Amino acid sequence: MTKQEFREYAKNRMIFLDGATGSNLIRRGMPGGVCPEKWIMENKQVLIGLQKEYVAAGTNILYAPTFTANRCKLKEYGLEDRLVQINTALVAASKEAAGGKALVAGDLTMTGEQLAPVGNMDFEELVGIYKEQIHCLEAAGVDLLVVETMMSLQESRAALLAAKETSPGLPVMVTMTFEGDGRSLYGTDAVTAAVVLESLGAAAVGANCSAGPEQLAGIIRRMAAVTRIPVIAKPNAGLPSLNEEGKTVYEMQPREFAEEMQAIYEAGAAIVGGCCGTTPEHIACLYDKFGKLPPAQVGRRPSGIRYLTSERKTVAFGLDDPFLIIGERINPTGKKKLQAELREGSFEMVTRFAEEQEAGGASILDVNMGMSGIDEKERMLSALEEVGGVSQLPLSLDSSHVEVMEAALRRYPGRALINSVSLEKEKFEKLIPMAEKYGAMFILLPLSDAGLPESLQEKKDIIETILERAYSCGLAKEDIIVDGLVATVGANPRAALETLETIRYCKDKQLATVCGLSNISFGLPERSYVNSVFLTMAIQAGLTMAIANPSQELLVASAFASDMLLCKQESALRYIEYAGTCTGGKPAPSVPHTAGEGESGQQTPHPTGKAGGEKAAAEDTPSTAVYEAVLKGNRNGIEQLTRRALEAGAAARELLDTYLLPAINQVGELFDKGKYFLPQLISSAEAMKLSIGVLEPLLSVDGKQEQMPVVVIATVQGDIHDIGKNLVALMLRNYGFRVIDLGKDVPKEKIIAAAKEYGASIIGLSALMTTTMQEMRHVVELAHEEGLDARIIIGGAVVTREYAEEIHADGYASDAADTVRLAKRLLGLDGKAEGDSHGKE
């Protein structure tokens, strides 16, 4: 099936997917803890029988059971050398079940390995892993691909890019899974996910697993509102529970499931199915209710709205919306100190500029690493990571080198803006297809190899030539922002008038516009006056945004006041808030054009535990730099900062008690409030670990290292997921607990033996799947049989507080920060001074 054929197939009709596979196979004899793919190959007829029931129920697209048949997952069972054989056999089984009555989708998901900088896997290695599996799936004859149950937008991007580069003709559907706060585990909201995945070429986007139909409806509604492609919903049959036999069950019956799917239908889903707990009966009831209906008529992506995103925030804007600022400061040109830092590999000024510009009202940040004496590509990729760690704003990627631009576009985990594409031969021929491939927008710069256009007409001709090329590559007007190309009024008295005419010309053609302001006043006195007045004229002519320094109060105030006078939406409130900033009020707001949920960057607090009160604590000292490094997750520089603080006279215990622990506590609070997400939490925890490594030899009590309680932690038998468990272990170590990490897929006997051997005070158990969480019960029972007095804490995506009470565990922790609090409370350590809770790992 081609992408065009899929568009026709999905046009004006509801499409039905299958339901759960794993839980139904378990009911039909598959034991827990085995490799599902291997068991299915040995028991093919069980799968075929199940999938035939789905087809009979109305399923149009069957998912081949290749969900975890990638190199990383198969390696857990020593089967990675059988990857081709396994994928081929599983697709063949599904095609036999489909019998020509349903399409077969090759199924891919996360590998379980974490991408750098959170983990150790390189992005290109991950793309290669997906390519390997996709090549097998296409060769086996799948009709399309589905990438499902994705927690990370960046990993979803890797899978989509792998498909584009391996099997460019195959349609790819992508569904992510979201937490109760409407964001993925890595902090991506539904709007951002939908925008990025559609722009990158997904044939359909949506959500699976996550929750029941009613809880998933809001996610689907937000996705449908910003996309034009079909939206997928594959919810669970409600929430899991345990029956009297200790088995995981979903109590939502088929008819109830179908009734609750009314909310999903009305939210705009056109492709529907079921995930955990659903059976062929669920799909049959779903088909009976919606099989003869067309997709619901809901508001889809409005015409003329543009979207730029980071990994966790979307900025949406139209031609008549309030003016936007692209922060220009992350650029080494003319900044000797920044150049020196970049040569040393330091990004302290880069991150500071990012934070200041966001606080100052920028909506997008331009990032340029162009200078001599460095590897620009390496610095650009590092800058993307560093800026993404402190700011949620979308980025404009700025480089004169095509290879640097492609490397940045490939790694950037959102929808970027390319700055810029001109009629210069190399850029014209290479960057426009690149924008289409990576789903980026671009700034159209009306220059050619001949240099600046000699007339306004020549400028318009260049614009039209580049537009024609972009349209032929599949891009649209909404993907392009035209640079007005400001010249110097001192050299050309008509420079301002020609730029204003360019802006009006573009607005008449429904094109967004941008300009850099500083050229207009070059060589003139009091340049800020000229720049500000020119900006107000340009806004009145229709200018959409400008590349500028948001710390220039006159410039920003002029822009915001212009919007207010032009009666643009919410502009009066923005001007009043900004004016309050200029007179000592609160920080300036970001431009109110956010389509994603949640707040963006926040002001960095300082520790307040230092003697002398808040004023002393807020001073800029080597010790507060350590605090800031943990808060910002600065892993590259924190060891040097810690040594510098010690050399300045700070005691190791003081650094720990007054700066490190308050910093990680603040990180935990920001995580709890939804202002920090998993990547920031891990970065901060890793930074603290490095700092403690410097301090550890100096931390002693009566000449001996203080000993903290032992925690034995493991993912239970049959479960090979360890993202959350690894983070819990890291956070516990940062608070001084001695952590014995047994890894994943650990039998109950090994967990209890380790608890005895090390004298554990806490046993931590993790499970991600409903099919394995019941193993927690067996561990608790064995611990009680053995007379262990260790407290048992459980957690994981499917685990609940009620389940913890049911199996008589001592507590349930929702995340890593919560685990630390619970462990300290269970052991009576929460009343001690924070510094007293640290000891040798």
Description:
- The protein has 841 residues and is an alpha/beta fold.
- The chain has four domains: 3-290, TIM Barrel (Alpha-Beta Barrel), CATH 3.20.20.330; 306-582, TIM Barrel (Alpha-Beta Barrel), CATH 3.20.20; 613-698, Methyltransferase, Methionine Synthase (B12-binding Domains), Chain A, domain 1 (Orthogonal Bundle), CATH 1.10.1240.10; 710-837, Rossmann fold (3-Layer(aba) Sandwich).
- Helices cover 46% and strands 14% of the residues.
- It is built from 32 helices and 25 strands.
- The protein is globular and about 90 Å long.
- The model is unreliable at 585-618 and 832-841 (pLDDT under 50).
Key attributes of the depicted protein:
single chain; 841 residues; alpha/beta; TIM Barrel; Methyltransferase, Methionine Synthase (B12-binding Domains), Chain A, domain 1; 4 domains; eight-stranded parallel β-barrel; 25 strands
- What would CATH call the homologous superfamily of the largest domain? Homocysteine-binding-like domain
According to CATH, what is the topology of the largest domain? TIM Barrel
Question: Roughly what fraction of the amino acids lie in strands?
Answer: 5-15%
Q: Can you tell me the CATH architecture of the largest domain?
A: Alpha-Beta Barrel
The main sheet orders its strands as 1-10-7-6-5-4-3-2
Terminal-residue CA separation? 55 Å
Helix amount, in percent? 40-55%
Number of domains: 4
Structural Rg? 28 Å
Determine the mean pLDDT.
89
Number of helices: 32
**SS elements, strand count:** 25
CATH class of the largest domain: Alpha Beta
Can you tell me the overall shape? Answer: globular
Question: Could you give a short account of the major beta sheet?
Answer: 8 strands, parallel
The stretches of 5 or more residues where confidence is low (pLDDT under 50) are: 585-618, 832-841
